[in-house]
UniProtKB/TrEMBL annotation:
GO terms for molecular function: ATP binding; ATP-dependent diacylglycerol kinase activity; metal ion binding. It comes from the Bacteria. Keywords: ATP-binding, Kinase, Lipid biosynthesis, Lipid metabolism, Magnesium, Metal-binding, Nucleotide-binding, Phospholipid biosynthesis, Phospholipid metabolism, Transferase. The keyword Cell wall biogenesis/degradation does not apply. Its cofactor is Mg(2+). Pfam families: DAGK_cat, YegS_C. This is Diacylglycerol kinase. InterPro entries: ATP-NAD_kinase_N, Diacylglycerol/lipid_kinase, Diacylglycerol_kinase_cat_dom, Lipid_Phosphate_FormReg, NAD/diacylglycerol_kinase_sf, YegS/DAGK_C. It comes from Streptomyces antnestii. GO terms for cellular component: plasma membrane.
Length: 296
């Protein structure tokens, strides 16, 4: 393995934490004897081009310094290669890092962990979701949660997670269940009026909401969580349980396990790792061992 490591940095992650986090992470890697090169793109397309060039050039690891959005971008560069991915999680949600039990908002500790993993060749191959040629690491969201994302992304203020709390309140006032059609890899078809459908490679989204609490990133299968049609009162009772994953026992919630799922619904945008993918219908596939990650 080459001793040159690439830090892939989002300077705006976590309201500026990304820029500050790069220095202690780089210091930890240099103290372990690695040469560190930093990549910062002018925009997402430019950043991905630079990250792919680093991977193609044989970098020893691509280490994403930012939140789940930057990790998602990094996955597009390393998925299907043997270049390991490290994560310095300093974003708002950090669900990918949480799923792997990596340090969150502690760049020095995360940098030291990555350096130790590289020194000791401590890596783990995990599954990824794939939609066409696009990869995702945690959850593909559609329905109520994706409409919350739509609304939150349109709001300039407030900043951070509180913006999405306000978006939830606003969407609750207007939301109605959506007719979904799910086709699973065994050929079975489910047609259901659903509040939301979440396809989980990892267990959580939104900064620790364990919507697919049983999802295992190494079993080759998605956990597909379907929340059936709910009144606003029921949804308000069930929603807080998402943070502990106890919503899965509610009678309105069903979980399927599948390696491939096709989702169809009218006027619903899907989000993967918190990033917009596009309107349904779409097909998501779970690809076993698609990325190598630096871990404990």
């Amino acid at each position: 393995m080459t001793s040159e490591i690439t830090l892939f940095v989002n300077p705006t992650a976590g309201r500026g934490r990304g820029a500050h986090a790069a220095q202690p992470a780089a210091s930890a890697l240099r103290a372990a004897g690695f040469s560190v090169r930093t990549v910062v793109g002018e925009d997402a397309d430019d950043a991905l081009t630079r990250a792919r060039a680093a991977v193609d050039g044989g970098t020893g690891a691509l280490i994403a310094v930012g939140g789940d959005g930057l990790v998602n971008l990094a996955l597009q560069a390393v998925a299907g290669t043997r270049t390991p991915l490290g994560v310095i999680a300093v974003g708002t949600g950090n669900d990918f890092a949480r799923a792997l039990r990596l340090p969150v908002r502690d760049p020095a500790a995360a940098g030291a962990l990555a350096a130790g993993a590289l020194k000791g060749s401590v890596t783990r191959d995990i599954d990824l979701g794939r939609i066409g040629d696009r990869w995702f690491g945690t959850v593909l969201a559609s329905g109520f949660d994706s409409r919350v994302n739509d609304r939150g992304n349109r709001m300039r203020l407030p900043l951070g997670r509180f913006k999405y709390d306000l978006a939830i309140v606003a969407e609750l006032a207007a939301f109605r269940p959506v007719p979904f059609r799910l086709t699973l890899d065994d050929g079975s078809v489910r047609e259901v009026d659903a509040t939301l459908v979440a396809v989980g490679n990892g267990p959580s989204y939104g900064g620790g909401m364990r919507i697919c609490a049983g999802a295992d990133m190494s079993d080759g299968l998605f956990d597909v969580t379907v929340v059936g049609g709910c009144s606003r009162a029921t949804l308000l009772r069930v929603f807080p349980r998402v943070y502990k994953g106890t919503h899965l026992t509610h009678p309105k919630v069903t979980v399927y396990r599948a390696a491939r799922v096709e989702l169809a619904a009218e006027a619903v945008t899907a989000y993967a790792d918190g990033e917009p993918v596009g309107p349904l219908p779409l097909v998501a596939e779970c690809v076993p061992g698609a990325v190598r990650v630096l871990t404990r």
